[in-house]
Automatic annotation (TrEMBL), chain A:
Residue intervals of the 4Fe-4S ferredoxin-type domain: 1-30, 31-61
Sorted UniProt keywords: 4Fe-4S, Iron, Iron-sulfur, Metal-binding
Origin species: Actinomadura litoris
InterPro entries per the UniProt record, alphabetical: 4Fe4S_Fe-S-bd, 4Fe4S_Fe_S_CS, Fe-S_Ferredoxin
One GO MF term attached to the UniProt entry: 4 iron, 4 sulfur cluster binding
Region annotated Disordered, chain positions: 95-114
Lineage: Bacteria, Bacillati, Actinomycetota, Actinomycetes, Streptosporangiales
SUPFAM superfamilies: 4Fe-4S ferredoxins
PROSITE patterns: 4FE4S_FER_1 (PS00198), 4FE4S_FER_2 (PS51379)
Top-rank lineage group of the source organism: Bacteria
Protein name: 4Fe-4S dicluster domain-containing protein
Keyword hit for Iron: yes
TrEMBL record, chain B:
Domain FAD-dependent oxidoreductase 2 FAD-binding: residue ranges: 9-216
High-level lineage: Bacteria, Bacillati, Actinomycetota, Actinomycetes, Streptosporangiales
Protein name as annotated: L-aspartate oxidase
A GO term, aspect molecular function: L-aspartate oxidase activity
Record's keyword annotation contains Flavoprotein: yes
């Protein structure tokens, strides 16, 4: 589930508020997005992929992270921010990850189970 | 600015691949088009967050023949060759459009030729959004449709919904409506599927349309127990284990899924993706990158470490049941109403089984194309005659209850989930369990239809609860009516395929659910 909005990185562009398919965020009074409906988060990582400044972190749990979990601690997560966007290949100067897509190998395998 | 009333030739409900293609093709045919999505066109639905194999087959007769033959048996011989051939043609054309019009960045092979057999959801749907908008379609995001409108003759004449972000209702009067709202995964949190609560099927039934193949609704995807990321294809490289580390015999991603389900009823199941070569491991990372995020973030190496797995319900997202199609333009039995993608039945091309890979996405883009064009044609034929016609709203359960209104959609959702998510009810089917489950669902329906009404965003949730309840009742009614095992519908009490039941089952009704065979049994496969 979505756990962290980094106030330091966020540029208040509202993209995450717009793109989240299950409407998890609200725009806060100061312009920062607020995780208003965390229980509706379906852990689809779409907000991470779309955030232009790598300010969001979706924790690897289908429920809320336990209290005190490192997955809610911005400092501990530094390297994890923006990881998915990097792989999807979005952002200036990057190559779309789909250029290296290899899904057809696995589809082939399903069509003719060995 | 709040939008209350909009007029259009065609309204498309849903902005996954089916709805996006429908909107583009309706607009290209000259219609004015509005697309309303519950979430956001570009990120919402089952495709947007996944890696998708596509049924893209070169137009060589032997290749096409092999492609059509490969799944007929698995689907229980309920598919139709003519539809398969049409879908193969249309998918080929649409994938080529994606390359040429949308400049989708396909991978290339050693000879520099693009490999067009797969699409990555985020990239695909981002480009579809661009194309939809360039086509002049008016897009309403975070704007779930909550009910259809009909004219005096019963023809569909638009829809009403709610704009979640400006907290305002809206109404689109339209000459034709395409339902592309996806399947129903019962809020199981399966990847990308929580927007898919079967709303379109409920709207269609309220307008008098029929459903087909609702017994093929017991798809479950393997996922790590701690998250929602599914990618069943990768688990064909896995070995499954008991908690003590001994191998769980017979378990597998395809035929052995029921072994996993049975075991999960009493004990945890562990897994390790230990049959992939280093090269295949690298390929997996490139095929669906988000598969690895939860593992990487927990410090688990799925190729060497054991991790617990679960099965998440994907209902009719990867089942094949849905709104019954009655013509090549994806029309339904109701004038002005068209259906596409997972909201429509996929039996026409894969019978009673989709399993993993490729047919679903091919169906979504093909049926979307046909429904969009069909709706545009219908709108043009109606022309000015439809302007200003009186319309009435068709919604009942969740919006206009029969008796005094109360809230409480969450309890209804829990009640439905208790009957459809458990493996021993929906996956491992047996009349002894289906009958009481259907009784419970019927009681839930009566209470919900009698009292539930939501307001504002609560209306959307109430309608989703109603849609899931109706969906579950159609599923189990059809599952009881199909007294045999065929396709993904496996009856533990009736494990054999019965040749006399080689025909589709049509289902419908809200207060009284009915089921009937579509035709006499189809001729035996040659
Ligand atoms: C993890 C996963 C992997 C898959 N892999 C493959 C694969 O490899 N190959 C393949 O062929 N298929 C695959 N599928 C299936 C494929 O994703 C679906 O068949 C496809 O997405 C169907 O497209 P759709 O447009 O009908 O529905 P969806 O993509 O689900 O879109 C439905 C849309 O309707 C909207 N909606 C819902 N209710 C309403 C409402 N009331 N009002 C307005 N809008 C509404 C939703 O927000 C959503 O945007 C996979 C599915 C999953 C879940
Ligand atoms: S998308 Fe990123 S930068 Fe924009 S508001 Fe959301 S968190 Fe902030
Ligand atoms: S992970 Fe998906 S559902 Fe959760 S907040 Fe991000 S976009 Fe929304």
């Amino acid at each position: 589930m979505i756990e962290v909005v980094s106030a330091e990185r966020c540029v208040k562009c509202d993209v995450c508020v717009k793109v989240c398919p299950t409407d998890v965020f609200d725009r806060g009074a100061d312009g920062l997005p607020v995780i208003a409906r965390q229980s509706d988060c379906q852990s689809c990582f779409m907000c991470e992929a779309h955030c232009p400044t790598d300010a969001l972190y979706v924790a690897p749990f289908s429920g809320p992270a336990p209290d005190g979990s490192p997955h809610t601690d911005e400092a501990a997560l530094a390297d994890a921010f923006g990881e998915y966007r990097r792989i999807v290949g979005w952002g200036r100067g990057r190559t779309p990850g789909s250029r290296a897509d290899s899904n057809h190998i696995f589809t082939e395998r399903i069509r003719s189970p060995r | 600015m709040t939008i209350n009333e909009i007029d259009a030739d065609v309204l498309v409900a849903g902005g996954g691949p089916a709805g996006a293609w429908a909107a583009v093709k309706a607009a290209e045919a000259g219609a004015s088009v509005v697309l309303a999505d519950k979430g956001y066109l570009g990120t919402s639905g089952a495709t947007a967050s996944a890696g998708t194999g596509v049924w893209y087959v070169e137009p060589r007769p032997e290749a096409r023949e092999a492609a059509m033959a490969s799944r007929e048996g698995l689907g229980g011989y309920l598919a139709d060759r003519e539809w398969m051939a049409r879908v193969l043609d249309q998918t080929y054309a649409n994938m080529n459009e994606l390359a040429e019009v949308s400049r989708y960045p396909f991978p290339v092979d050693d000879d520099g030729r693009q490999i067009r057999r797969g699409l990555q959801g985020p990239e695909y749907m981002r480009r579809m959004r661009v194309r939809v908008r360039r086509a002049g379609v008016r897009v309403l995001d975070h704007s779930p449709v909550t009910e259809l409108l009909a004219d005096g003759s019963g023809a569909v004449a638009g829809a009403a919904g709610y704009r979640l972000r400006d907290e305002h209702p809206f109404r689109v009067t339209a000459r034709a409506v395409v339902l592309a709202t996806g399947g129903c995964a019962f809020l199981s949190k399966a990847l990308g599927c929580d927007v898919n609560t079967g709303d379109g099927a409920l709207f269609a039934a309220e307008a008098g349309a029929e459903l087909s193949g609702m017994e093929f609704s017991n798809a479950y995807a393997i996922a790590p127990a701690f998250t929602s990321v599914t990618k069943t294809a990768f688990y064909s490289f896995a070995t499954f284990y008991h908690a003590d580390g001994s191998v769980l015999e017979g378990a597998g991603s395809q035929r052995g899924r029921s072994v996993i389900a049975r075991t999960l009823l009493t004990e945890p199941v562990l897994c390790r993706i230990d049959k992939a070569t280093p090269e295949e491991q690298r390929a997996m990372r490139l095929a669906q990158p988000n598969f690895f995020l939860p593992f990487d973030r927990q410090g688990i190496d799925p190729f060497t470490d054991l991790f617990p797995v679960t099965l998440l319900a994907e209902g009719t997202v990867r089942g094949t049941g849905g709104i019954r199609i009655t013509g090549p333009d994806c029309a339904t039995t109701v004038p002005g109403l068209y259906a596409a993608g997972d909201a429509a039945t996929r039996e026409l091309i894969c019978g009673g089984f989709t399993g993993g890979g490729s047919h679903n996405s091919a169906w979504a883009m093909s049926s979307g194309t046909w429904a969009g064009r069909g709706a545009a044609r219908h709108a043009a034929e109606l022309g000015g005659r439809a302007t200003g016609r009186p319309v009435r709203a068709l919604g009942e359960a969740g919006v206009r209850p029969a008796g005094p209104a109360t809230g409480g959609h969450a309890e209804y959702v829990r009640a439905v989930q208790a009957e459809v998510l458990p493996y021993d009810k929906n996956l491992l089917r047996h009349a002894d369990r289906l009958v009481p489950a259907l009784d419970a669902l019927d009681r839930t329906w009566r209470e919900l239809a009698g009292t539930l009404r939501g307001e504002g965003a609560g209306l959307v949730r109430a309608r989703s609860a109603a849609a899931m309840t109706a969906h579950a009742r159609w599923m189990y009614s059809a599952a009881l009516a199909r007294t045999e095992t065929r396709g993904m519908h496996k009856r533990q009490d009736l494990p054999e395929q019965d040749p006399s039941q080689r025909r589709r089952l049509v289902t419908g009704g809200l207060h009284e659910v009915w089921t009937r065979p579509e035709t006499a049994a189809l001729a035996v496969a040659s």
